[in-house]
Amino acid sequence: MALSEDAIALMNKINKQFGPGSVMVASDIRSAGQLPSSITSLDLILGGGFPRNQWSEVIGMEGSGKTTVCHKTVAHNQNQSPDFTTLWIAAEAYDVEQAAMLGVDVDRVIVHATNRMEEAFQVAIDAAEARTVDLIILDSYPALVPDGEAEKDMDEASMTLGARLFGKFFRKIGKETGRSMAANDRPVTGIIINQWREKVGGFSPAGTPKTTPGGLAKNFAYYCRLEVARAEWLDEARPGKGKARVGQVMKFKTLKNKQIAGQKSSQSDYYFEDAPNLGFRAGEFDAFKDVFLWAIHYDVIERRGAYYNFGETRWKGKDEALAAIREDVDLMHSLTEEVMRAADPRQHQEAA
User: Fold this and answer.
1) Helix 329-343 and helix 287-297, axial crossing angle in degrees, nearest 10
2) What's the confidence (pLDDT) of residue 119?
3) Considering only the top CATH level, what class is 287-344?
4) Tens of pLDDT, residues 269-310
5) CA–CA separation, 100 vs 82, rounded Å?
6) Residue 305 phi, psi dihedral angles, 5° rounding
7) Which pLDDT score is estimated for 348?
8) How far apart are CA 186 and CA 35, in angstroms?
9) Residue 28: pLDDT above 90?
10) 215, 253, 206, 236: which is closest to 61 by C-alpha?
11) Parts of the chain belonging to CATH 3.30.250.10
């Protein structure tokens, strides 16, 4: 049913007063989509990737892989588009060698090094307003220092300054990242890296209570909150030399996700050193294993006892199936497409 003339007149009045696109018909609103990370198991629980035109938080303990996830996201999207540009606000040192190992073209990454909170937030707001970058990463929030804290002596308390500024930041940047939903505007994705802290005075039946610096307001502002953790180490047997630690199993969990249902978990094998006997180079995730396990989960590959079936193809045992997927690029591509289709609830809605 079309809008009444009075409703259209009201829309025209508001758009004239506050600018074109201030109000629109809901059916004209378009989603900017997702920014994939290239880590299959992660993209599946995110709903395709990090939400564009929104802000996400990546949380974890030290050495869990937070920065690695961000670098892999940058590298993948650079490969997808020659114009993809990243602004990396480095409150901590930007490791060029690590970025390059993970596939990042550092010639397309703008690095702004500062630990001043006000400066970092203003740079992010200016970049979003300019519409010249596709991804803004802040690494990391706990390393930022508010000006008010910097001016105080070491024995003077200033715990709430950062939280108040963080809340103000989200209120100001919402206008710039919430691009015109009807216009063909360049989308931007925001990711802020954060760290767990022990919640003093809190209680958790599952162990030590945890919280993240920055106050509570930010948790409402984030569209997606992702936890990255190390589940276990990966070792490679080297004849005559014992074992070498070459990687870790990264575990992902969406604490909040407004794209699809939250509280989803997955994991992936990541190699931070060359593992020639296992067939991996430093900086690689085991995408083949990810696709294989999720294909079983979504019944793309049917498991019947010791046998695994995909269409007319049949393998005996997990090792044989995995070996076949690793050796056949077309098979890997087909499985990935089927898994992504099965995992996307919107595909089922369209089919219905």
Assistant:
1) 50
2) 97
3) alpha beta
4) 999 999 999 999 999 999 999 999 999 999 999 999 999 999
5) 16
6) 65, -125
7) 42
8) 13
9) no
10) 253
11) 287-344
Q: How many Cβ atoms from other residues are within 10 Å of residue 54's Cβ?
A: 23
Mean pLDDT of 121-143: 95
Round to whole Å and give the CA distance between 73 and 313. Answer: 33
Q: Which of 250, 254, 261, 257 is nearest to 344 (CA)?
A: 261
Picking from 245, 251, 280, 248, the residue whose alpha carbon sits closest to that of residue 265 is: 251
Among residues 157, 218, 211, the alpha carbon closest in space to that of 192 is found at 218
pLDDT digits (tens, 9 = 90+) for 314-336: 999 999 999 999 999 999 999 99
Task: Answer for the pair 208, 197: CB distance below 8 angstroms, yes or no.
Answer: no
Boundaries of CATH 3.40.50.300 in the chain?
30-285
Average pLDDT over residues 117-144: 95
- Residues 87 and 252: their CA atoms lie apart, in Å, by 24
User: What secondary structure letter does DSSP report for 187?
Assistant: P
pTM for the model: 0.90
CATH class of 30-285: alpha beta
> Greater confidence, 29 or 110?
110
Question: What is the pLDDT confidence band of residue 337, given thresholds at 50, 70 and 90?
Answer: very high
Close Cβ partners of 187 (under 8 Å, ≥ 6 residues apart): 32, 33, 52, 53, 134, 179
Which amino acid would we find at residue 244?
Answer: A
Residues 6+ apart with CB under 8 A from 248: 65, 230, 231, 232, 233, 234, 269, 270, 272
Binning pLDDT at 50, 70 and 90, where does residue 73 land?
very high
- Residue for token pair 């025209």: 12
Tracing tokens 């793309």 back to the chain, one arrives at 300
Beta 210-211 vs 197-198: how paired, if at all? antiparallel
Give 76: exposed, middle or buried? Use CB within 10 Å, 0-12, 13-18, 19+. buried
